[in-house]
Design brief:
Blueprint (H helix, E strand, L loop, with lengths): L1 H16 L6 H4 L5 H40 L2 H30 L9 E3 L5 E3 L2 E5 L6 H10 L3 E2 L5 H10 L6 E7 L6 E3 L20 E5 L2 E5 L6 E7 L1 E3 L2
Parallel strand pairs: 5-9
Antiparallel strand pairs: 1-10, 2-3, 3-9, 4-9, 5-6, 5-7, 7-8
């Protein structure tokens, strides 16, 4: 009988030392693969940017040294130092292009350099695009793009329009940087250029003085409506 009691005590101790744990996947839901990929690309972009800033800082320091030397030397010495500075500048450009372009895996169409965008921006041809997650009226959307040193979306051709519809396919509608100016009452892009009706047709401004792009086309909209928006800016070209 005593032996049975000891055996029971051991079983109780063994059970208490190994408490049941819920499966890990119940406590930690898996993130979608695209979410993990986006986070990884964002981290990569930040590392590239930090590296580029370090390289540029070193180059600026060296350039200041070259300029100081040129100012303080005689004519003959200036020619020698000017040649050295020029060589240093070419070396800097080569190493910057090699470091940034190879790290970004983003080559231009000519293969002579690469085009870069800030983290969380999308590259298409010569432009960078940033897609909002929030919704705002047209004016606030334009102001947000200005704060990002960019402008509200301007579409120039059918290829760009197809790209925008692709990256915004999960969004109901996106603001375009297109509105009716007063008193001329003409459709005008935010960069000041007039709208070309050959790209897509717009109805009378009475239907709304601002424009949204949807999966199935373009539509006039009241400017106070809240929608997501896209900012655009020129990509940074690291050339040959």
């Amino acid at each position: 009988m005593a032996g049975e009691i000891v055996y029971a005590d051991l079983n109780i101790l063994r059970a208490s030392s190994n408490p049941l744990h819920p499966p890990r996947h119940l406590n930690h839901p898996q993130h979608p693969r695209w979410h993990r990929l986006a986070a990884g690309l964002g981290a990569t972009g930040i590392l590239i940017l930090v590296g580029a800033v370090i390289v540029i800082s070193v180059w600026v320091s060296q350039l200041k040294g070259c300029l100081n030397t040129l100012e303080n030397n005689s004519t003959g010495e200036r020619i020698i130092h000017q040649s050295n500075c020029s060589t240093g500048l070419k070396d800097f450009h080569f190493h910057l292009k090699q470091f940034v372009c190879e790290s970004s895996h983003s080559n231009s169409a000519e293969g002579s350099g690469c085009k870069l965008c800030p983290p969380n921006w999308l590259l298409h041809r010569d432009k960078c695009y940033w897609v909002s997650k929030e919704k705002n009226p047209w004016n606030k959307s334009r102001e947000d793009c200005s704060r990002r040193s960019s402008r509200l979306l301007v579409i120039r051709d059918q290829d760009e329009m197809t790209f925008i519809q692709t990256i915004s396919k999960d969004t109901n509608q996106i603001w375009l940087g297109l509105t009716v100016t007063s008193p001329a009452r003409k459709w005008t892009w935010v960069d000041g250029s007039l709208f070309n009706q050959t790209l897509f047709k717009l109805v009378d401004p009475a239907e709304g003085k601002c424009v949204v792009i949807k999966a199935d086309g373009i539509q006039c909209e009241t400017c106070t409506t809240v929608s997501k928006w896209i900012c655009e800016k020129d990509a940074l070209l690291i050339s040959q």
